[in-house]
Amino acid sequence: MTTRVIIVDDQAMVRAGFAALLAAQSDIDVVGEAPDGAQGVELSRRTHPDVVLMDVRMPEMDGLEAARRLLSPPPGVTHRPRVLMLTTFDVDDYVYEALRAGASGFLLKDAPPADLIAAVRVVASGDALLAPSVTRRLIADFAQQRPVSRGKPALRLKGLTERETEVLTLVARGQSNTEIARTLVLAEQTVKTHVSRVLTKLDLRDRAQAVVFAYESGLVAPGE
How far is CA 12 from the centre of its chain? Predict the structure, then answer.
């Protein structure tokens, strides 16, 4: 199955480089490019990509606003792509907000080519790009700067079973399904089932939003 990708970045050389790299993969098809968020949203609505590579900082409309529009579309628009944020900074408030909006992760622009290719495949598969330690640090840093919500997020935790709460805690600490299975002495398929139930019960899009939710609800404290 081929993954359809569009690239949204205000630097033409960056778009061209990423497009050439991804188009050389047999399982990835670059279906368009855009120089700003507004044009990126329009292009996505027209081409229906599986993954949008979205720069954080752009003129006209930045990547954060574009991600919000793609992931919370207006009535009548059913297509919602996976959004992978691109940034030149390893700690960027925009990226945190993008994860809250539903982006599936982020990648540094100077990451090795193999990392970009792998990131597109991970995000396209429906998972979130949370393995790099820099991602966990970014979420923890910005969660620490914000007061923990004791309102609705914390109340929503009460709908989880004890096991589901344990799984969410480990997801928030950046553990993979394999690592969680090892920690809790469970089958990996069982862990996948628990993760799926957590996302459904909390109405979360993917693991990226689950991590943010865990911090904001106070389930996990930065630095733990």
Answer: 24
